[in-house]
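Bit of a strange request maybe. I'm writing a small parser for structure token strings and I need a real example to test against, not something I typed by hand. Could someone generate the tokens for this chain?
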Amino acid sequence: MIAKCYECHSRQAAEVQGGLLLDSRDATRSGGDSGPVVVSGRPDDSLLFQAITATDNSMPPDNPLSSEVIEDFRSWILSGAADPRGQADEHLIQDPDYTEARKHWAFQPVRSHPIPAVEATEWPSTAIDYFVLQQLERNGLSPAPRAAPELLLRRLYFDLIGLPPAPETVDRFVDDPSQTAYCRIVDRLLDSPQYGERWAQHWLDVVRYSETEGFEYDRTLPDIWRYRDYVIASFNEDKPYDQFLTEQLAGDEIDPDDQQMRIAAGFHRLGSVRRNAGNQKVASSRNEVLTERTDIIGSAVLGLTVGCARCHDHKFDPIPQQDYYRLQAFFAATQEDDLSLRDEDEQTRLLAVKEKLEAQIAELKATLADATGDEEQRLRDELARLDGELPPPGPTLCSVKNSFDETSHVYLLRRGNPDLPGPQVGMRSLGVLVSDTQPELPPDTPNPRTQLALELTNPTHPLTARVIVNRIWQQHFGTGLVSTANDFGKNGSLPSHPELLDHLTGEFVADRWRFKSLHRAIVTSSVYRQSSHSSHSEAGREIDPQNRLLWSFPRRRLSGEEIRDAMLSISGSLNPQMGGMSVILPVEQELVDQLYKPAQWVVSDSREQHHRRSIYLFAKRNLRLPFMEVFDQPSAQTSCAAREQSTHARQALELLNGTLTNQLASALADRLAREAGPDPIRLVTHAYRLTTARRPSSQELELSQRFIEDVGLSEFALALFNINAFLYVE
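Reply from user aminoacidic:
Good idea to test on real output. This should exercise your parser:
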């Protein structure tokens, strides 16, 4: 077999033919795409024997076996096909030589670079500006002038807290737009609790946060909103990223008695779970859970498409299939753990009630299998009644724990199929990122996820800090220095400013992985304070049509959450309450009826709760709020590297005809009448200052007054929610 078959049917083959591996006992017995190839004791029924004896297309091709060897195969199969190679054949797993692969820029260590020399020495305000200006000057471009104070302030407010500035705040900055005044505003916004609400949403996008599990049942995760609140609090505390990441990867291992640590570990519960797949402990269901937990480390933390190595070696990046499963092995002992916060007696009582009802439900389901007609309907009604009587989970910590008694042995799965296990593997990070001599950890290694966190947060790790720094830059400028935020591999984009990325990463780690210092460095730079309009726009578009060199500030549309929150704030309707249970809003009944259990969508009673910030709205995978969906809210099925910014008719229809926008337009009209009085000039001016942070032009003033006379103040307020000056950040 080694001499004649391994070229096409082993893990060393350039391309495995027919899905058939013959390089281990397990693989040979499992067979390939056509099924098992050896039937013990029956050579004529064995596909392997048929292949080597066929008169046409015999195997091996162009090099038929001798009659003596064929007879040896017959005798071997007749005698039981004994295979001395063992179950795992770990010696057959051969890691590639990573010497060339490690030359890829993202796998290189972060380096310190000198501040570059530039010609326009009066322009830079921070080190960032020197790196950007160097690239501009090399390409014959000049930066745009500084943005107008009112537009810069609006940009800063939306970027840091996701809400518009008050007119009086704008006035003070217009009167004193000095560096000192600007830095005071930056510090105040970074210290605002609303900062955490804004920046938590970016992280929740990356980790595909949802409060339900997806698939058909879309079961609610008990009190997973506590994880959302943990993320908000972590940003507000300026928790170092290495600590923030470690707590999520291994909080339950670090301190199982600390509720916040258990909540942080709820990170591992955020992936979709197919509850209607039957027994969750069977190999296929367990494999789906482990796949979710492995893939998110690749995309969210490493910025690599690790999931592409689940079924075969990665086609582009140096990630062999065994490395995928080595990474997965860190989660082999991780099991779901919902901790009740009820007192012990109450929990015991309710558990007994639940077990009794579940036994009745199981009995009814067994009877239902043979029922028809009226009897079937009666049983279904009874099932629905019993299901409704199941006690709710009550206050819960949705988390994970290690259960080494239930540890899943992790094998290299052929084609990612749990029914086709290959060699068993142990815990180890991606080979391209570690020493060639680093061994796998044994399955009984204590605190395995803590070990992974220590590796990922090592200051010398080439990816972890680079990836998160790039994400922060992306949220300020619309595009990261690496435009493919979840793919730093060969198929991803090259960094537009590689030395700047290294500089920011080095500063970030040196400053103890703190976000607020990074924000401060970015938003106080001259490149951030550029206008989005430039007299050199024509040259810029010709030389750098995607504005990767940042010759002007990239204009962006507000996200769905920002639009909704801004409308609430401007109309005076925003409820500033922070934290706690998520809010379920009323939606069209047709959408609710499409759910597996429409009773899951129980609208929150208090109307005031309906006006809380969007981050507190209930996030259900199978029912996205229409307003959010139309403005490109991600689906939470996979990690969202960057929000889309589409433009289509449904957005205009939602803004013009939607219940929310019309209600808030009426509230804004009431506020305008109350604060500006009947004077039409004051009224229009105040409306523009609230919605756009600037005063109207003379043409806008004239048109607006005529519009109000023709259709009324509420329609004018609604129109302002639809203008680009409101929907876009300049």
